[in-house]
Write a structure and sequence with these properties.
Blueprint (H helix, E strand, L loop, with lengths): L1 E7 L3 H12 L4 E5 L12 E2 L3 H8 L2 H6 L3 E9 L5 E12 L2 H14 L3 E4 L3 E7 L3 E6 L3 E9 L6 H5 L11 E9 L6 E7 L2 E7 L5 E8 H6 L4 H10 L2 H9 L1 E2 L5 E3 L10 E2 L2 E3 L14 H20 L5 H30 L2 H13 L1 H10 L3
Parallel strand pairs: 1-2, 1-9, 2-6, 4-11, 9-17
Antiparallel strand pairs: 3-5, 4-5, 7-8, 8-9, 10-13, 10-14, 10-15, 11-12, 12-13, 16-17
Helix pairs in contact: 1-4, 1-9, 7-8, 9-10, 11-12
Bound molecules: flavin-adenine dinucleotide.
Amino acid sequence: MNYDAVIIGAGLAGCSTALHLARHGHQVALLEKQRYPVHKLCGEFLSVETQGLFSRLGVLDAVLKAGARPITQVRLTTGGGTTYESGLPGSALGLSRYQLDAILLRHAQNAGVAVWEGLAASDVVGSLDEGFQVTTREKTFGGRVVIGAYGKRGALDRKLNRPFMKERSPYVGFKAHFEGIQLGEWIEMHAFPGGYCGLSPVEAGRTNVCWIGHETTLKQNGGDPSSMLHAMGEANIALQQRLDVLQQVSPSFKAVSQVAFSPKTAWAHDICMVGDTAGMIAPMCGDGMAMALRSAEIASPLLDRFLNGQMPAAGLRNQYERSWGREFGLRMRLGRWLHHAYGRPGVAKFGVSLCRRVPAVGNWFIRHTRG
Ligand SMILES: Cc1cc2nc3c(=O)[nH]c(=O)nc-3n(C[C@H](O)[C@H](O)[C@H](O)COP(=O)(O)OP(=O)(O)OC[C@H]3O[C@@H](n4cnc5c(N)ncnc54)[C@H](O)[C@@H]3O)c2cc1C
């Protein structure tokens, strides 16, 4: 089966790249190892700029119709009882990935993308000059370009020998939906030693509780995410007050390990990487989904020109790498720094107090960790 583009992974980056390319008349195959709809681990906070990105993609109406909740205020708390509150520079949204990814996949299908669910890519060989072969358990797909949109870390990264795979990360993440409180238009981020926990409103009056923490905290709590969550509450009274009234509605927690923010590359073996596969920003910034959509927006016109014979392979490689660095380089560095700072009780307390006393500092961080 031969296509102009084979896209591996149907998250935000993969679906939006597929949509852009299909609308420019290209034959696109989109491979997704899971079957949708499916719950995914994420804070489910869609930063302010996603509205523009959704609108340009033609999916904003569907996102709002699915019950996305407006979020206009942010509250940060620390274990020492310090709180910082601020308005966001516009309206963000809260919507589950269960809904969101299915909406994007449906739009891609409607635009003529050949979607293959339940099919994981296991190997890629080839080059921009010669074309590619993407192997799955059942079929092999030929493509003039291959786009890696398979998320933060996967078996393909090992196969491609990407350097960040040699590093080990001690961070684990969990998420589940709860009922029992109405956050209104607020997102909350509660710090505790080694990590932080976000509470965000999503559709149907539910609250998404998602946290990232150190694996030792999980081990100290017998490997049980519920116990870990309550231990985090004991370290932060504001979080504890929330947990006292929240009731879990998801049957289980979604979990992820090895959450790392080391620099990656926008290309590997001539595969064009988008979204988390090109680089993952710390969840603290709440901007990973916007970056996934935006990286697709940057890559797609360049891929389109290459596929139309208007740009050589070398130009495509250079221009995408340069544009990616220009757009996301500073954000990624700030995100790494904030992630480590917010998980350290002393630094988190100092930072949150500083933002309270000098709101311009908080506003600067909010502005510079997003597009
Ligand atoms: C704890 C935590 C909280 C977060 N909270 C937020 C937040 O509140 N707001 C925000 O903006 N960002 C948040 N993020 C970041 C955000 O989730 C990611 O940046 C975003 O999902 C990236 O989208 P993506 O399309 O690149 O990857 P993904 O959404 O991960 O999609 C990748 C897709 O590829 C599929 N796949 C993987 N391997 C293969 C394969 N071999 N073959 C076929 N398919 C494959 C996967 O099943 C998946 O569907 C958070 C991240 C973490 C870890």
